[in-house]
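Supplementary Note 2. Why include the ligand at all?

Several targets in our set were suspected to adopt different conformations when bound, so apo predictions alone were not considered sufficient. For every target with a known small-molecule partner we therefore ran a joint prediction. The input for calcium ion is given below.
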Amino acid sequence: MQNATIAALFEELGDLLELQGANSFRVRAYRNAARTLESVSQSIADVVATPGHDLTSLEGIGKDLAEKIETIVTTGTHPALEEARAQFPPDVRQMLRIPGIGPKKVAALIKELQIQSLADLKAACEQDRVAALKGFGKKTQQIILEGMAHREAAGNRVLLFHAKSAVDEIIRDLRTVPGVDLVSEAGSCRRRRETCGDLDVLATASDSTAVMDRLAAHALVEKVLARGDTKQRVRLESGLELDLRVVPTESYGAALQYFTGSKEHNIVIRRRAQERGLKVNEWGVFRGEEVVAGLTEEDVYASVGLPWIPPELRENRGEIERAEQGTLPTLVEAADIQGDLHMHTTASDGAATILEMAEAAKARGLKYIAITDHSKRVSMANGLDATRLRKHWKEIDKVRGKISGIEILCGIECDILEDATMDLDDDVLSEADWVIAVLHYGLKQPRAQIMQRLLNACRNPHVDIIGHPSGRLIDKRPGADIVYEDLFKAAADHGVMMEINANPERLDLDDIQAAAAKSHGIPIVINTDSHSTDGFNILPWGVYQARRAGLTKADIANTRPFAEFKKLIQR
Ligand code: DGT
Ligand code: CA
Ligand code: CA
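The joint prediction is reproduced in token form.
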């Protein structure tokens, strides 16, 4: 079990207790515990598996919490959590997932308006009954309606980050079932789509009974929805559904190819097979009765005259033509990344000092970083004005003397204000090694004003890169209205780079935009935007998005050694 999964259970427990109206200290204790678990870099499950371990030796973990963690790691849940879940039907718990309102407000809705489902809530909003409620008002009612509409439009899709942690955990368990040979993720999760509609898992075994029994008994599984000889569908506690397919080992490659999709990609593969007098399905590739391929994906692709295609590209967006021509890109990998050029420290809203961030980055093998705290407009995050920023850079310079083996750039994440000027003056920006320009406020401005802001930033001679360009939060907040062609033209003209922000909720640029940026010759930087020393953990999510965009090591500026990267930014 991953730390993030344990943390999510504590977060859920905190929410449910608050919904019950429990003592706020208890609620806060569980939320703090969740935060602690997220920031512990050791695997808690590994600690628990070590004989003679003591969880209380970890910072911020006391006796009560240690007991709860043990129980969760060993049983997948905790009686306190089960009890809290039992008090609220799934329809009620759904309301906790609406962006913009928390458990306190949900509790008030239940108590005052007897609301029991999303449908009830929508009706109450439309009748203005929510606005009339004490502590709500028209604005909150509007936020609720928009939040529900946004969720509805997103369907029940979940972030790749959550999908993948659940699927990894289940796969690890299924691999230990006797008689099971191979287990793999498939579907959109294997293609690293930014959200997943459901989870797909493939296992090989001569008999499916044991593996299906194990899945049904898994701690993350709430209910078996359907079960056949080769197929089982279950619902997880989180509401997410999972399809398990069991095939014989000799069909593994064919089934993996088939269930990885995408549907659009597979349609073309099937057509190519037909053209060659072959039939392809999840059991293999056949010429009449004869088996042509099945054990490996490579064989399946070879049978239709193609090299193996990385799952991230399988969307029928030109990958099959490129495979045919032998021009498939060699996709960038996490291990290629040498620098991280976006992170925060205690100077603004980060949790660690400059030195702590530098040491953590170095421990992960990074060769260079940029410290980029917020500028003053972001007062909520204690953003820096020119005076504080210059002092901060002096501090960074001192830290350079205390650590070797890693280069540190004096940077800033500077807001592009609503009026299209920069939050800090040119004289201070000109002293920076590295300037990230970003939109934080006024994301809903009309297209013309948004473009004015971005184009001005590109024209500013001190701006090196546009950070999280759209400002979207996946399925929570739409991004700014951007004409990407115009943005990329300006960026290319002025030598400005583009960021892929690796935060699993942002992934901004997205895959299609990043591919377009590349076609304009714009160097792309994958950044973690870390706010703590563990923030570096999210790098893979940025790399997945870059891979989906078909980007190679050469396309990503921060795969270069520092000396080369420096040349690139000294334009
Ligand atoms: P999702 O779940 O909406 O995020 O997207 P996928 O791609 O995971 O879609 P899903 O779970 O419906 O199916 C997984 C893969 O299985 C899909 O990418 C292709 C394959 N597949 C599913 N149903 C069919 C089908 O009716 N025909 C074909 N050719 N392939 C299918
Ligand atoms: Ca799926
Ligand atoms: Ca599925």
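The mean pLDDT is 94. The chain has four domains: 3-154, 158-246, 252-325, 334-569. Comparable summaries for the other entries are listed in the accompanying table.
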